Amino acid sequence: MNFKVKSLLLALLCACSQGPGSQSPDGGSQTQNPGPTPGPIDGGSGADLDPSELDPVSHGGTITFESIGAPGWYPSRRDPETGPCDAYQSSGCCLSKHTIESNTLTPWDEDLIVTLRGPMKVKQFAVYQPAGNPKGPWNLVSSWDDRSPKSPQGLHFEGNSTEEKGFDGIIGTECLVDVSTSEDFACGPGSLPYCPPQGSGKKKTWGWSGSKLFVMLATMPHASSLGHACSQGSGGNWFDAPWVGLSHGELVRAGAFGGCHCYAKEPDKWYLGDGCGQFNVFEVVNDNNDFKNLDVFSTNMFGYAGYVGEGPCGSKCKVGSLGSEADLIDKSTSTEAARGAVASPTRGPGAALRRPVSGYRYFLILLDVPSRTVQLAIIHPLSVPASVGALLPGLPAQMEASTVEAVRTLRLPR
């Protein structure tokens, strides 16, 4: 299966997101309902890593996407009883045109939910957002730690039996876990954007709107060494292929792969992904063809504004010839990149980040609305740059805007 098509199908199987409402405080697009703003929570809990969980120190890597965002529209689901159905209507499916006028990180400034696919082991997961003024401090608004797995703060997990058992940090190959805020979203008649009524005990939640910084401490060992599989064999296109994705909350709350969604402007042409789309932040591609490379991430975002980023390395990235210190690979030479990669809607990064299979890394995902920047970083716990030392490893309850700026301008390996 083509890697784009596979990614699109995954988004629908995970059931992705967005919800239209008022102007976001940090310059986001007009949305009908941006959802509640999570409050600050306690922080300051540095990672507790055993030496056996650490591999040799690596140089880290960054990919920076600049000038992100575009005006346009995508179809937003409506209650068939209320409409309007001016984008698409068929067999109870009512989609309305959600028009976006801003170009400030749109539509990724809207309500987003994270999806994690294994094999993956997570030690910490944290989310920061501006406390008010985007030029002021940022608060820790959501967090989870494997030292107290039953006590998430401002987080909700769904999928892979986490609703009943809680999240223990281990996600087996082909297993999927959606991570969102703990704020309830009331599905049912009149909900906006619309999502079907939930059964007894079911819970749907908001994602994070506006500027946000996701921090995850994780490793992604090969499926053969992790267990906990959600598959029966190695023939599947997602086998041994971890993924960190961002999807609109609307799509996630809509439920499983169905015939009415914001993902494409015509639901029966979902493979086009020209609606609210999806952001494949860190995606290992396993299509059982020439695109397959189980050691390297591809990174791309797509939707109504088009395709941004680059596809998988395939055989172009020969990881076996690299030293363990390399986290960012120059695609043209299969060597360690000279410095952090920079991309835009008209230029791919030309580099790919390496999957950590034997040790932990910090994964950073910054979506900064005012600067129209998306910053991705992988950082070894024993090689945290001094410029972001106020954030890692301590994960404080609050950090200054200067630290966020340091994350945004970070260029690794050099």
UniProtKB/TrEMBL annotation:
Keyword Aminoacyl-tRNA synthetase listed: no
Keywords: Lipoprotein, Signal
Region Disordered, annotated ranges: 18-61
Pfam families: YJL171C_Tos1_N
Cleavable signal peptide: 1-22
Ranges of Low complexity composition bias in the record: 18-32
Ranges for domain Cell wall protein YJL171C/Tos1 N-terminal: 63-130
Protein's UniProt keywords contain Coiled coil: no
Sections of the chain in a coiled coil: none
Protein name: DUF2403 domain-containing lipoprotein
